[in-house]
Design a protein that fits this description.
Chain A is an alpha/beta fold. Chain A has eleven helices and nine strands. In chain A, α9 runs parallel beside α10. Chain B is 42% helix and 18% strand. Classes of the chains: A alpha/beta, B alpha/beta. Chain B: InterPro entries: Trp_synth_b_CS, Trp_synth_beta, Trp_synth_beta/beta-like, TrpB-like_PALP, TrpB-like_PALP_sf.
Chain lengths: 253, 395
Amino acid sequence: MKRIQNKLKENKKLLSIYFTAGFPKLEDTKTIIQNLENSGVDMIEIGLPFSDPIADGPTIQASSTKALENGMTSDLLFQQLKDIRQTVEIPLLIMGYFNPILQFGIENFCKKCHETGIDGLIIPDLPLEIYLSEYEPIFKKYQLANIFLITPQTSEEKIRQIDDNTDTFIYMVSSSSVTGSKTEFNQKQLAYFEKIAYMKLKNPQIIGFGISNKTTFNQATQSQKGAIIGSHFINYLEKNGPLNISPFFDDIR
Amino acid sequence: MNSKYNANEKGFYGQFGGTFIPEMLYPNVEELRLKYLEISQEPEFKKEFMSLLKEYVGRPTPLYFAKRLSDKYNAKIYLKREDLCHTGAHKINNTIGQILLAKRLGKQRIIAETGAGQHGVATATVCALMGLQCIVYMGEIDIERQAPNVARMKMLGAEVRPATSGSKTLKDATNEAIRDWINNPEDTFYIIGSVVGPHPYPDMVARFQSVISEEIKIQLLEHENRENPDYVIACVGGGSNAAGVFYHFLDEENVKLLAIEAAGKGIYSGESAATSVLGKMGIIHGSKTLLMQTEDGQITEPYSISAGLDYPGIGPLHAHLFDTKRAEFLSVTDDEAMQAGMELAQSEGIIPAIESAHALAALENKKFDPNDIVVVNLSGRGDKDLNTYINYFKL
């Protein structure tokens, strides 16, 4: 959690990258993380693949299916990340659907994250209410941030409630859609970004879904602290592999 | 009806159910949660619902005393003839209810998922009736297997979109429908076909299907001078017909409820859909329930000869009935179901859907008292399954 908080204090716009663990090859996880840090990325979301990712578009779905075919599991991911903190300093989060984490055991999963040096979790289908009533003490015990999503349809009341229960950042979904790349944001989305900035929340926001180039990155970070790229990076990885990552960022910032 | 087997206000049946959805879906589901009870209890809504069930669906469906079946199993066996509903199965009870709700919420665009195509056809039918746009998601593999139902949906004006992700069957069609709903948060209503999904769907669908058991009480009074049978038997995939036929008997503890799952080629054959035996607690499609999955929490692909029963979960109500032992869960193999389907055709002149044949096959597994009154829910007719019957029996 501390690493995320410190990163958020830096006087710059943050670039966060999502990738699916176990894709393109099962053993690529560590290489990708190290090369992302070397390329100047500020934060990484490691995707724990799931068979039924209902909030994801075709690119992340396909990478999850491939990662599972390759043999990725929660256990294996923790094994791969065992020594990651010896070489990597930027904040690392795990993003995954609730069921695999539930089967691993919430406490056990959080404990493993803590031992590995994972700073936070993003679990899109774990609602705030259930997190607060059942799991918050476990996250606190292992000093893990739990990141909540808001969308253009989320009510102001709920945004305030999420803000009250967050100590790091809020994940702002750019539009009403599943994940996937866009070439630019429309006026309605830009107005939404401004509206949220105008709410003066205590936590900074980082925008995800639809970011794929300099234009969208700059639009997203106009009023917000940072942006997350997922699908577009996965497409790049599929074509170029995990060793040649840095040219990807020439087009971003 | 206030029952200890009903969902609480957060949609939990005991430890099962709830709303495990990403924030992107929240406004859609919340709108429905806040309004479904109020709207569906308005006198005008009830009147329109009941009138369509009577005039359009053809309700009440008969409760038929099956004499030759009764002689064979030495009990009084009644068949609830949902197979005589318009479109050939109970599914339309629910789609009528949900389309009326969608209209009152001002939605213009209807989406649905379908496996074998029965719910897709029932949704396309009510959309045609109401003049609303209809998009049905169906696994690519199911589209190939169920060509006649695809053609029916097209004739009814629906667009059938193939789900090409994952295993390309019902579970993936449901994923695609959910993604569509995320992408269209304002004008779209998602008609779910079973007692699955996030709250309020399991409760809402059970209520719309509860007309089945409501009628049985009245009909049994005429036939037997009593409202309650000794046994109620229904097949369970997601569990909508079972929810409907159990509903008004849930609190009548002396009515034994039998839920019949598809054992496929054998419970432990690796090709089965017997969720109560093979499943563990997990999250699927926004609901906490019993679920077939790997140790690592990946949802697995079930198998049954009947396309309507191969869902990897069961509705949270059924998980609760299993957990509390209120219902007894049995499973029936492909072979047993096919034999039971043939037997009903030849002894009573009724060709059942293979789903319903699973419920009939359970008659073999129970010892009845001659005075026992047994109601089997004949949830659908076998027309859609003719190809499977032809191939199986080399007809």
